[in-house]
Write a structure and sequence with these properties.
Helix content is about 35%, strand content about 20%. By secondary structure, it is an alpha/beta fold. The chain has one domain (about 15-20, about 35-200): Rossmann fold, CATH 3.40.50.450. The strands form two sheets. Strands 2-7-6-5-4-8-9 form a seven-stranded parallel beta sheet, sandwiched between helices. Strands 1-3 form a two-stranded antiparallel sheet. Strand 5, helix 2 and strand 6 (about 105-110) form a beta-alpha-beta unit. The model is unreliable at about 1-5 and about 10-15 (pLDDT under 50).
């Protein structure tokens, strides 16, 4: 749904979530809050597929620069899928920019209970903190469904004009690869951080 229009959220669902009932689109009759022209989404791997040590720190640096560049291009809204790993790091990067006026984080939660996928108490706390920091929370299914992540990924692409991602070389069949292909088909501007960029000069 990248028609240049401004799209809104309906907070009729419990606990401040906009509930999409299995659809990758928001209700048409709600208030205007998301402008796809000024929105960027994130996609990347879970923690077990991310680099460690110095390479992870470089990834954080590259992500910081990519977000800063998007802000410089007029992006004011960022959508994260809230999975453990790159999604949480990306969301935290956005929150670190909150001193700038009018920046917003949208948490796209595939199903209620996703927090149960967090493998550590620290990551559960990070997850909850990001939900509290988010301007908007969107959920697609009441409980886990095999379609939950695909619908969430399509939602992020539908409501964005830009994508920042990280994908290693052997993950084209992953959810990250799926989201990147969706973004390519939709004509999004894509900034993909690659493993080759994680080497210090």
């Amino acid at each position: 749904m990248r028609n240049g229009g401004v799209i809104g959220l309906d907070y009729s669902a419990a606990d401040g979530y906009a509930f999409c009932s299995g659809s990758p689109f928001l209700p048409n009759d709600c208030g205007a809050v998301i402008d796809p022209r000024k929105t960027c989404c994130f996609t990347g791997h879970r923690s077990d597929k991310l680099p460690n040590g110095d390479e992870l720190e470089i990834l954080r640096e590259r992500l910081f620069v990519a977000v800063l560049e998007m802000i410089g291009r007029g992006v004011d809204t960022f959508i994260t899928g809230m999975a453990e790993g790159f999604d949480l790091i990306a969301a935290e990067t956005v929150v670190n920019f909150y001193a700038r006026p009018c920046l917003r984080l949208v948490c796209a939660v595939p199903y209620f209970g996703q927090i149960g996928e967090m493998k550590t108490a620290e990551n559960r706390q990070r997850y909850q903190s990001l939900l509290r920091a988010a301007a908007y929370k969107v959920c697609f299914f009441e409980k886990f469904s095999p379609k939950a992540y695909r619908v969430r990924n399509q939602f992020m692409v539908n409501y964005s004009s830009h994508l920042i991602g990280f994908m290693n070389g052997n993950s084209s069949r992953s959810g990250t690869g799926q989201t990147i292909r969706m973004a390519q088909r939709a004509g999004l501007d894509i900034r993909l951080i690659t493993p080759d960029e994680l080497i210090r000069d």
